[in-house]
């Protein structure tokens, strides 16, 4: 009974075996076998590297407000000749919001000759309304101008997710600036500056994205330097035009990060009014998504099988052609047909 079943199963065998005494090794077959093995090893290593490596894909779709109704703006800007005591950071947007001397979570550092001499931390997320007049120490500001002090602002502000601008100026001190100018014997403000860093999104997310992804334009304004050239009472205004693109990053583990890429252009114009450095931003309605992924193990297995089968099939065809050619030549030689 068992023998009959085995006999029927053997009829299904498509891999028929030849007895060892009916097979014959050849030199050509040995060379082809060695070459085939080398090719298989090289292709296997290449496919293994592709399986291990992380690939990236991207897509675009209409923004559905993922990431909230507000945007965090990270700042680190040095104003080389603009004292901290009269520097304010103001925010406006098309919804009518206008906050003067907004402080968010900022550090103002008094700098002199490129060195920090003191710093103050400001944490009022609501800022000051337009009519509020910040107090000022005239003696200290006069001394700051005399010693050519500057100011570095670092930290972040929160803005609405609509087009608008934030700008650095002395607008919050407009009511007493004429006194400041008279006491300090200056005609206008010098807003020469260096942008150490500007980005949109959570700093922790941005740091992780930079480590894991090589995609996106997250901080194109970093290390930008601008020098003002005031002429008498005419100051210089700086304007940056920023196009913000909501961006989602998904790493290979499935973690999602919501930040914003941006591009920027700038220009400078002379002005008879109070100089300022404007950062005007507009938001794209399209979201970009970057996705990391790895090749599946089943796909890797299929590729390996294809490599093995393909190489062995081609090697077998080549070996058969060589063997038949050699046999044909030998027959002609034995029959004296080869000169």
TrEMBL record:
- Please state every residue range assigned to the domain named Endoplasmic reticulum vesicle transporter C-terminal: 145-319
| Similarity section | Belongs to the ERGIC family.
Membrane topology annotation: Multi-pass membrane protein
Q: What is its main location?
A: membrane
List the InterPro entries hit by this protein, alphabetically: Erv, Erv_C, Erv_N
Q: Where in the cell is it found?
A: Membrane
> Which residue range or ranges hold the Endoplasmic reticulum vesicle transporter N-terminal domain?
9-98
- UniProt KW Transmembrane helix keyword: yes
Q: Name one GO cellular component term.
A: COPII-coated ER to Golgi transport vesicle
What residue intervals traverse the membrane? 26-45, 297-318
Q: Which UniProt keywords apply?
A: Membrane, Transmembrane, Transmembrane helix
The protein's name is Endoplasmic reticulum vesicle transporter C-terminal domain-containing protein
Q: Does the keyword Cell membrane apply?
A: no
